[in-house]
Amino acid sequence: MKDADSDSIEDRRTFLQKALPAPVALLSLLQGQDRKAESKEESEPAYNPAEHYYGMGIDPGLCIGCGRCAEACKAENDVPREPFYFRTWIERYVVQTSGETVVTSPDGGIAGFSPVAEADVLRTFFVPKLCNHCANAPCVQVCPVGATFITPDGVVLVDKDYCIGCRYCIQACPYGARFLHPVTLTAEKCTFCYHRLVKGLVPACVEVCPTQARIFGDLRQRRSPLHRFMRFNKIQVLKPHLNAEPKVFYANLDGEVK
Amino acid sequence: MDPRFQTLQEVLQQVKGYIYPNEVELHWGLLVVVYPYLTGLVAGAFILASLERVFNVREVQPTYRLSLLTALAFLIVAPLPLLAHLGHPLRSFEIFLTPNLRSAMAMFGFVYAWYLMVVLLLEIWFDYRQDLVLWSRRESGPRKWLHRLLTLGATDLSEASLRFDRNAGKLITLIGIPSAFLLHGYVGFIFGSVKANPWWSSVLIPVVFLFSAIVSGIALVLLLYMFTSLVRRVEIDMTCADKLSSLLLYALIVDFSLEVLDFIHRLYESEESIKILSQMISAKLFLSLVVLQALLGTVVPILLLGLLSPAFRSRGLVEVPDELRRWAYVGAAVLIQIGIFSTRWNVVIGGQLFSKSLRGLTVYKMELTGLEGFFVSAALLILPFVVLYFLIKVLPPWQEGETAAQAGLAEVA
Fold first, then answer.
1. Residue A85, φ and ψ in degrees, nearest 5
2. Could you give the CA distance from residue B75 to residue B40 in angstroms, rounded to a whole number?
3. Which residue, A55, A165, B231, B328, has most beta carbons within 10 Å?
4. Average model confidence (pLDDT) across chain A
């Protein structure tokens, strides 16, 4: 079982390695600016976080629940494979004609979802979830030593060499986006693939999404795809009443999603 | 498979409804239940001691020093469960060195240090200084040196210096009362300020914590007073025991009223979390909340104390012989301890048994061995009594000791 798993991971990895350059190349063709930035980066590797302010847009209407994003995230970020640790996951909502809503996310949706009997279904949809990189982040507020912080470019990160493992941030996160890494025993969460951002790349989950249900971009730049996303969609954030000011924006979000 | 993952796998099997995938692991376990229980006893015991000192409740004088030592013993042990619970205990000092001032938990270092250094140790020192000097003069061998060392060289027993001791002690107690409120109110705030968690997020939680702390502290000192009297074969001062139980009853009634208020308020407001919280109470917390905390831990002790203690009528509503009353007090105090421990359990564990998606319930699998296991927590609950034993050996808190000391002072004079 284990071997088969790791084999398939290897396969996916090689696939990703081969497949990744293609969309990147396409993207840079479409966005001349980005290519410039990239070539500039080679000669001048300095990345200035003050020039950016990141966020993510998600269109649940486009999500097909394939689980590629969660899989890519685990591979890219060495997230433990056990089904209790996720930086991102996909939820399926099945609203039945009876009014009852059944939500599932088997193994974070990595391997997709089993079909539902259509007879009783009123509507059904998928919702990708991840850290909301809140501007008024409860997790950052509660960390007793300041090991979790907001970068100037708006990303919430954890310093694993500083985290004392008290788990207060995990309790404070309204979205269940954090976990304690079973090996490092420090708090872990989505970083928007910060190591990729500084190279001018988009997060792995955005990169692999086959339907562009995830849109990544810079909230302050009009030419950013996120800007366009927010211009043409009705936007909602999760649990707005908590005033965490999340920076993951959902298009036309269903009221059932919490 | 790693046994840790095996446990999580078992939890996953028992999840009802939907929980976020990262919620399978329950993060604050038994050790975090023990922590507020211990600090509650510290604050409660100290507030009892301050009654005698500041509010001149003379009847509880026999328990004054015992309360202070109890508070100290429990305060020494209180941070251990937290330390054992940290993923990186060796980095814990960062809370003192580089605290995030916006974090409630970062205040721990300051509140704890303030309470230990400024309040408890100083108050105990000023209260014992005269005795320490007298003991060191009278005794021989290591005890003599230990007591002399503890005087810190302040051996002046003139009337003026003793008056200074008394005044300083009184001032420290005055500072100590809000500090004790701060200590436990702050622990309540750690939970009450988590807006992501509807079970915790309540402005009443710090206040409820505080009154339950007073209840548990008085009940513990009552038990310790009775027990130590029995061991020392000394007559129990029934005026003291009666007063303690009356105070206990008043505190218990306030505590219970606050908790009922919290409960009714939640039910009446009926926010979006009410459905899952009701399910949790009936499916997961029935034993610990309804039976242990409310019924056995609160209602039964209120009835026992209400009927037998002299709270409402000088001889109690039902007049019974001293012996029976003593047993009733012990019974009530033991039930209260069980009840307050359940309160802590229901807050800490209860707050993690439902998903923040408000769509499902999970389970808590308590381990037996390991740092987060039952045995370590049990040891941490016993340890304060061991510490207290040694404190009592070094600093005997007994009234008779004090009278002897007074006699010694007279001799010296």
1. -130, 115
2. 10
3. A55
4. 88
What distance in Å separates the CA atoms of residue B283 and residue A223, rounded to the nearest whole number? Answer: 53
- pLDDT grade for A42, boundaries at 50, 70 and 90: low
If one looks up domain A47-251 in CATH, what number appears?
3.30.70.20
Containing H/E element for A218?
strand A214-218
Please choose, from the candidates A125, A23, A126, A109, the residue with its C-alpha nearest in 3D space to the C-alpha of residue A69. Answer: A109
CA distances from B121 to A43, B35, B180 (A): 63, 21, 14
Rounded to a whole number of angstroms, the distance from the CA of A48 to the nearest CA of chain B is 25
Could you tell me if A176 lies within 8 Å of chain B, comparing CB atoms? yes
B-contacting residues in A 96-155 (Cβ below 8 Å) = 101-105, 107-108, 129, 138, 140-146
CB contact under 8 Å between B22 and A167, yes or no, is no
**Do A152 and A167 touch, CB atoms closer than 8 A?**
no
The residues near A229 (Cβ < 8 Å, ≥ 6 apart) are A57, A59, A215, A217, A249, A251
B33-42, B99-108, B245-254, B265-274: lowest mean pLDDT where?
A: B99-108
For residue B126, tell me if it sits in a domain. yes
Count of CB pairs separated by less than 8 Å, A with B = 137
Question: How far is A172 from chain B, CA to nearest CA, in Å?
Answer: 6
Element of type H or E holding B191: helix B159-192
The residue segments making up the domain with residue B95 are: 29-193+367-413
β-pair partners for A235: A251
Q: Are strands A214-218 and A248-251 parallel, antiparallel or unpaired?
A: unpaired
Chain A residues with beta carbon closer than 8 angstroms to that of B189: none
Q: Is residue B302 part of a domain?
A: no
Is the distance from CB of A126 to CB of A92 less than 8 angstroms?
Answer: yes
Number of domains in chain B: 1
Closest CA to A34 of A255, A221, A237: A221
- The token pair at A136 is 């008024």
How many Cα atoms are found within 13 Å in the side-chain-facing hemisphere of B406? 6
- On the 0-12 / 13-18 / 19+ scale of CB atoms within 10 A, B296 is middle
Tell whether B325 is covered by a domain: no
DSSP at A203:
P
Closest listed residue to residue B189, CA positions, set B105, B248, B73: B105
- Cβ separation of B196 and A91 shorter than 8 Å? no
Per-residue pLDDT tens digits for B177-229: 888 888 888 899 999 999 999 999 999 999 999 999 999 999 999 999 999 99
The C-alpha of B339 sits at a distance from chain A's nearest C-alpha, in angstroms, of 25
Assess if residue B259 is contained within a domain: no
**pLDDT, tens digit, 9 for 90 and up, residues B329-386:** 999 999 999 999 999 999 999 999 999 999 999 999 999 998 899 999 999 999 999 9
User: CA of B85: how far to CAs of A163, B80, B291, B366, B376, in Å?
Assistant: 13, 8, 29, 14, 11
> What's the pLDDT at B413?
45
Q: Is B112 a residue whose pLDDT tops 90? A: no
Contact A108 B21 (CB under 8 A): yes
B17, B21, B100 member nearest A144 (Cβ): B100
**A 61-100 residues with CB < 8 A to B:** 82-86, 89, 91
Instruction: Compute the nearest-CA separation of B108 from chain A (Å).
Output: 9
> Which distant-in-sequence residues (6+ apart) come within 8 Å of B141 by Cβ?
none
Q: What average pLDDT does the segment B113-137 reach?
A: 92
Residue A3 in tokens: 């071997």
- The residue among B209, B191, B208, B205 whose CA lies nearest residue B351 is B191
For chain A, what are the domain ranges? 47-251
One-letter amino acid at A171 equals Q
